[in-house]
Design a protein that fits this description.
Elements: H1 3-12, H2 16-27, E1 29-35, E2 57-63, E3 68-73, H3 86-121
Antiparallel strand pairs: 1-2, 2-3
Helix pairs in contact: 1-2, 2-3
Length: 145
Amino acid sequence: MTTSDEFKQQLKAGRIVDALTLALAESVELEITTWVSSANSDGKTLTETDQPAADCRMRTRLNIVEGAIDTEVGSQFIGNGPYTELRQFHMEQVQAGRQIIQHNLENLQQLFTVLTRTLAQLPPSLRRSAEGNPLLSPSSQDNLP
């Protein structure tokens, strides 16, 4: 099941906090892979086949929590390798990935703000989940009416 499907399933089940926690966990890291498939891959996607050979891929992992950017560049993409023209494409995808992460975090911040305001308007007895644990209660710093 994809993360998107799991998120939707959590929302449908009324587990908003679990859905938002999943979204937050997934929004802080992004992996971008550029690879050249072999002629005999039969058009299958990466998830349907084995990982591409290390020399035929470039992979970058962005993690904003750790502040880490890890990039792997296969030998076919450097020097006189046959795929050197794809390096620029990969770097453009990495830049787009940074923007995606930033956009995801902004959206999550808006969701948390709306959720916090909504919960603040509910009676205290409705702010608790079935297990008796508090959901999200506004902090004193939220300055909510």
